[in-house]
Amino acid sequence: MAGGRALDEAARPPRLAICLAGAARGLILPTVWRSIRDTVLSVSVANPPTLFLVLSTGAEEPRGREGNSEDDDAEQTYLHSSEGAQLLAATLNALQPAAVTFLTGRSQPSCGVPAGGQFSKWAECANLVRDYETRNRD
Q: Which residue(s) pair with 73 in the sheet?
């Protein structure tokens, strides 16, 4: 009864996937994740948004600032501490993402442009959404 399924899908309210991709260092700050939770994830719609995360936890390539590669912020070393682990756990618990991918190791620039590596994170996030939709078909 393929026609019946098409009618059921057309009657459902649309769903919204939200992809956040980048370094974990900022997301684990309570001010940041609370803002995302309260302003983005709490929108009033028929179906609440589904969150997907792709977070890098390793060092990042310098972005044209002298000495940036040695900076603790660029290295994200505090993520590997007990405090960092607690902040990350609190973030994931508060945001309740449907899927998370952690990228470890040094972030690589794409096409020789340091900020271009972000595109591969977005592509990975799109894969998370596709996999989620495949697993959650009625």
A: none
| Residues 29-45 pLDDT 10s | 999 999 999 999 987 77
Question: Within 1-138, where are the H helices?
Answer: 2-11, 24-27, 30-39, 72-75, 82-95, 118-135
Phi-psi region of 102 (alpha: psi -120 to 50; beta: other; left: phi over 0): beta
CA-based radius of gyration for the chain: 18
Torsion of CA 121, 122, 126, 127, to 10 degrees: -20
Q: What is the pLDDT of residues 96-105, one digit of tens each?
A: 999 999 988 6
SS3 19: strand
User: What tokens appear for 49 in the block?
Assistant: 């948004």
Cα–Cα distances (Å) from 55 to 86, 103, 125, in that order, read 16, 6, 10
Q: Which residue has the higher pLDDT, 1 or 5?
A: 5
Q: Which of the 8 DSSP states describes residue 98? A: S
Burial of 86 (0-12, 13-18, 19+ CB in 10 A): exposed
